Amino acid sequence: MNNPMLPILLAVLICTACNKDETITPQNGTPIVTAEASYSIIVDSDITYAKGLSYERGTVLEKELQLDVYHPDNNANNRPVYMFVHGGGFTGGDKQKGSITDIADYYASRGWVFVSINYRLAGDIGIDPTGIAPQEWIDQVTNSNPANAQDFRKGIAAYAAQRDAKAALRWIVANASNYGINTDYITIGGGSAGSTTVIAVGVSEAGDFKDEISIEDDPTLSTTNLNETYEVRSIINHWGSDNVLSVFENLYGLNRFDRSDPEMWIAHGTDDPIVPYSEAENLKNIYDSLDIYSELVTLQNKGHGAWNVKVDGNSLQALSFNFLVDRQNLILE
After folding, report:
1. Quick check: pTM over 0.85?
2. Which CATH number is 124's domain given?
């Protein structure tokens, strides 16, 4: 499907780029979390959740995709889970960035399982990205006239990021019993490109960003727990946008926003020079038009990546925590 808006959308996308040992007994199947940091944290690092095609010096590789799991040192077997996707404009970033580990510590010390993932970036994309993205996506990135090879790779990596994040979610479901996760309470969040990714993941259908590629073209799909399903309950969006989702929807002639989408918490700076504040207003308007609950936390006079800002004396972690406890009806102790 040819759409004159697609090159513009892709151009925007590329440029935007204390330990308690007692057993906790669940009540009525609802997870219990604590208002204060109450548990020491166990970190399981560099777990391979899937593989994905990658290119290095002209050679096709099967790259191991890894995540870290932060979980409280208690005996709970009914925990909510929060999966986080780092930012970096689809060219950089890492699951162990300091701002992310701070969020991980905040949530895991209060009873959550927190999962931080890495995913394929522009550096993993070769000149011929067959198998990493479907041919129609590759053609569209090409037709958007990217300024250079790096911008081309970013456009392809934007697709791969969604595929990898969905694979990580399926890994979480497949391993839920190992971490005492209640899969009825799945939250996904991110920052910048990571938020753009989780918006697309949470709003799109389960097969989107996956079924466009066959296992014949990408045999690593067989490593991604394809038989697992998930339902995202909440999205935590730090200065992201729906640009990737918009490209997907326009390319395939689909509108994935509907009344069943996860509720969303949004934090965005009014002076953001990378992802304009209008992107947050657009998302809020879409959610309001569908009568889906959302909250927009406006960060006055703040730019991109304002992780340490306080709003009425509250950190962003505290504000998103309060949103999740309230909207997911978690039991707070």
Report:
1. yes
2. 3.40.50.1820
